[in-house]
């Protein structure tokens, strides 16, 4: 079974590389992972995944015209959704648990004269440091920087920057303490 998984993962990676995604052959791609580029940014390295990363079943990484950069040794759990319209950067050795959603853009809400569907996007980059642990079901909203070594409790909604080595929980996420040496 393990050999079958390696062969299937290899062919998923090969097809992603052919589509223009910069992905290392040492990445472990589980079944039903969606790596999606928009037509305009197919050849610009819009999605870049370094070596020894693992992406769980059903995860969706969609560049939407922006860039998603994932450093080495990152684990992305099952059914994680990452929208890279405003840009998403994930540091090395980061763990992102299942059902987390990372969104790097938002809509303006100028008034009633423009239909919601026609409102322009605001691009808000997301930067996640190295050695970060994001619990299951978290929501990371655009425009935030999560410092190195942070731990974010399950179900938290991150709306503001989090300082390095902080432990945060809640909606909105707030720092409850810091990791000790």
From TrEMBL:
<protein>
    <submittedName>
        <fullName>Acetyltransferase (Isoleucine patch superfamily)</fullName>
    </submittedName>
</protein>
<dbReference type="InterPro" id="IPR051159">
    <property type="entry name" value="Hexapeptide_acetyltransf"/>
</dbReference>
<dbReference type="InterPro" id="IPR011004">
    <property type="entry name" value="Trimer_LpxA-like_sf"/>
</dbReference>
<dbReference type="InterPro" id="IPR001451">
    <property type="entry name" value="Hexapep"/>
</dbReference>
<dbReference type="GO" id="GO:0016740">
    <property type="term" value="F:transferase activity"/>
</dbReference>
<keyword id="KW-0808">Transferase</keyword>
<dbReference type="Pfam" id="PF00132">
    <property type="entry name" value="Hexapep"/>
</dbReference>
């Amino acid at each position: 079974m393990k050999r079958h998984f390696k062969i299937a993962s290899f062919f998923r990676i090969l097809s992603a590389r052919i589509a223009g995604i910069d992905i290392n052959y040492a990445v472990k791609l589980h079944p039903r992972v969606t790596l999606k580029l928009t037509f305009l940014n197919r050849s610009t390295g819009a999605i870049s995944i370094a070596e020894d990363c693992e992406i769980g079943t059903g995860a969706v990484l969609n560049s939407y015209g922006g860039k998603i950069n994932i450093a080495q040794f990152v684990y992305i759990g099952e059914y994680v959704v990452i929208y890279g319209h405003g840009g998403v950067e994930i540091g090395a050795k980061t763990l992102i648990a299942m059902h987390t959603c990372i969104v790097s853009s938002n809509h303006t809400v100028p008034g009633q004269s423009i239909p919601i569907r026609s409102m322009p996007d605001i691009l808000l980059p997301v930067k996640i440091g190295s050695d970060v642990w994001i619990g299951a079901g978290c929501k990371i909203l655009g425009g935030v920087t999560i410092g190195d070594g942070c731990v974010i409790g399950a179900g938290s909604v991150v709306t503001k920057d989090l300082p390095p080595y902080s432990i945060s929980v809640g909606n909105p996420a707030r720092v409850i303490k810091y990791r000790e040496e």
